[in-house]
Amino acid sequence: MRDLHLPGRSVVMGRHGAAATSHFLSTLTAIEILRRGGNAADAAIAACAVQCVVEPGSTGIGGDNFVLFAPARSDPAGKVYGLNGSGRAPRGLTTEHLLKQGLKEIGLTSVHAVTIPGAVDAWSKLNRRFGSMPLAELLQPAIRYAEEGFIVTERVATDWHRNEDKLKADANSARMWLKEGSRSLRDGEIFRQPEHAKVFREIAAKGRDGFYTGWVAEDIVAYLRSLGGLHALEDFATQEAFWVEPISTTYRGIELFEIPPSGVGITTLLMLNILSGFDLSKYDPVGVERFHIEAEATRLAFEAREKYVADPVFADVPVQKLLSAGFADELRGRIDVKKAMPALCAAAGTTTHRDTVYISVVDEEGNACSFINSLFWSYGTGLSSPKTGVLLQNRGTGFSLDAEHPNCVAPQKRPLHTIIPAMAMKDSKPWLCFGVMGGGFQPVGQSHVLTNILDFGMNVQEAIDCARGFHQMGRFEAERGIREDVLRGLAALGHEIKMAEMPHGGGQAIMIDAANGVLRAGSDARKDGCALAY
After folding, report:
1. Could you count the other beta carbons within 10 Å of the beta carbon of residue 317?
2. Range of the structural domain that residue 336 is part of
């Protein structure tokens, strides 16, 4: 194993197995599982369980999970398996009920934003199908960190501080997630979560039923109903992740796979189809032309997302049309390289500061697992039930109350879902197992990283480090790494410029270098993650 050093970061190369995650403790956990003989699926589950403890603002067992898994040997060759672990709205939740309450939208901290958590059932299904170690064994590191404590890192402390008021607003969360019930944990302090440990022990003992039935589900449901929620024990007992056929497109000879709707991975594929008609390689990768074309492709792809993408059980989602060459040609024709388009009818994204964790693992056999878990906004709704310490997601805030909108809320409907793992294949073999966090930014981040590699020849770490911009809500939000002259050039083309308050997302990736028989891993300095190999 050897390190290739880049400015401020490093790419770790190894021959046996590699893990790249958005928190260093989970990376260490994944490597330990691999060294003990576990495979990529085992390592991803164990690592994510740890992140649910040590990075509570970004993820938790009260949230959702999506997975793409590429076996080293599959029949047919190049088969990628997709797992949708998103939760549904309660059976009793209707548009009519919310409108009668005088609501015009589902608020970020509303009890109605709590969809049934899907992560634990997804972990269980992934473990049963592809895992090689018992789920109970995989949860032991998370249990240990929850009981014995962990040292809070600077980025986690920053996110915790930003959400003090949200956690104070719920008496249970204030008691369990704030120091002495009054303030967030600070960098360097040790935090313990005994309630969380009890829930993990219940899951370890009883599997997914330890979460979806029994005292854990009863405590969560009772608390939600006390706040006016319509959740029922049956909603939890019947929550089920399901295997899906991934969708894909080909860009510069690489086939990129995504989870189909209700996930927004199709937005990434549409962006790449639009970008495929431009020769990006002739531009400066951090120059005006590249960011302008990427921003316009973002606006068009997000406009299509807003119009079409929803739970396909409840809405007609024209997947074939959205992925067709003709549709991409039509949208690309609206791009003028000399000026920005007028305002579109749907602003691209309203997704600042969504929080997620992403994990990429490739094991010794070559199995690749692209794994993502999220509470949606930081600390979700901020609601925790009194006995569990489980923070509950606010994914339901993505529902519309407009009866004509494809994403209108309905009983047992899944909301449009922003978390999207990615898997790129080369010659029908896993080539790049990666993800870029950041709510609605994820399709842009994935496109940015992939084009950095394929169009600009960057290595995996350079591709992740490269400065980012996101055209959302009618303006181009630029990271500080974009030069002033570039920002002036974009403004001259008609883009309204705003400096991003926080970096756009974070990313992890593992490239499988089949020619040399090594793995190249990269991790984003925008979060606390790292990449390790053995």
Report:
1. 19
2. 244-352+420-514
The model's pTM is: 0.94
Catalytic residue among 29, 115, 249, 356: 356
**pLDDT tens-digit profile of 477-492?**
999 999 999 999 999 9
Backbone angles phi, psi at 402, to 5 degrees: -85, 115
Co-location of 330 and 255 in the same domain: yes
| Contact (CB, 8 A) for 81 and 243 | yes
Number of domains in the chain: 2
With CA atoms as reference, report the closest residue to 170 among 178, 158, 159: 178
Shared domain for 471 and 393, answered yes or no, is no
Residue at 93 is within a domain = yes
- The letter for the amino acid at 216 is V
d(C-alpha 466, C-alpha 313), whole Å: 38
Four-CA torsion 288, 292, 295, 299, nearest 10 degrees: 160
Q: Is 109 designated active site?
A: no
pLDDT in tens, 38-95: 999 999 999 999 999 999 998 999 999 999 999 998 778 889 999 999 999 999 999 9
* Per-residue tokens: 132: 């090689």
Q: Are residues 436 and 508 in the same domain?
A: yes
> Can you tell me the distance from the alpha carbon of 271 to that of 353, in angstroms, rounded to the nearest whole number?
22
